[in-house]
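Notes from the 1:1 (GR / supervisor)

We went over the backlog. Supervisor wanted to see one worked example end to end before approving the batch request, so GR pasted a single chain during the call. The sequence is below; no edits were made to it. Supervisor asked that the structure be written out right there so they could see what the output format looks like.
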Amino acid sequence: MNREIFDALYEVWQKKDIKDKFWTDDLALLYGYPSPEALRSAFRRARKRYKTDNFNYHKPVNKKIFIFDLETSPLIAYTFSYFGAYLSPDSVMQTPYILTWAGKYLYDNEIYGFRLNSDEALEGNDLSIIKNLIEIISEADILVGYNLKNFDMKILNTRLIENGLKPLPPKQIVDVYQEIKKTFYFHSNSMKYVAKVLKVHQKIENEGIGLWKRCMNGDEDALIEMLDYCKGDILATEDIYIKILPFISHPNMGVFNQDSIRVCPNCGSSDIYQKGKYYTPAGEWLTYYCNSCGAFSRGKQNLLDKSKKKMLLIK
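Structure output shown during the call:
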């Protein structure tokens, strides 16, 4: 099937009504194929050739999805023991503040990154980089991160209120760490381990707590190194997110689609086709497969007619 025929058929196929039979003798005759099955097979082969991009980074930038990560200072407190230490509020010398943050839009080559300068690090003053972060992520609809819900978002909200700033507008959140814990059984759920197993961008190694100490002492070189470390986490997080995307529950990308066509709810691609059915105790639904990310989804229309529904018994 050449590109001209494929494009014409693809446009018709996207507008099809799921209640009607699409692959018919008349359609096959119209496009010069001996049977509906021959046309359908040629269409599938052409779709893979012309439409599928197999998750590479030549995909268009998705301004709806923003991936970000924070690096913070540690809590500093007085304690009398390593073991079973109880920290009263009076023993806390300094609460965590943000040292650096980095982020990028999905599939974008540009990584945003901001860090404290030497004076800000010594003072624990992260107001300027928080304002930078809020300005950018306020434009996105979906935020992605590793342990985003339990760490980054809580830290950010804490620093917002401590700095006298207003909260973020509501956002959909995909926490890659939580999705991995819920869906898979890796022997470790750490970013470093998962990135290694999946053979994607690796975390950047650093010297450990010494780097954090140098940052808090206002060492400019250390702050630059911390920002580079943070950017490395962004690349690893994006790669892992793309790998697990077809397996997870995801905010429905069809909601953001401006065209009246079906798209994959996980990645937003229109390169989907009907493949099989899904059954529940009270319904029959068409299932769809995405050639772009590999996710399965199902239609919202119950295919059972009213008489069949009335005859069903549910335990």
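Supervisor's comment: Strands lie at 62-72, 76-77, 92-94, 98-106, 112-115, 142-145, 172-175, 272-280, 283-290, 296-298.
Batch request approved.
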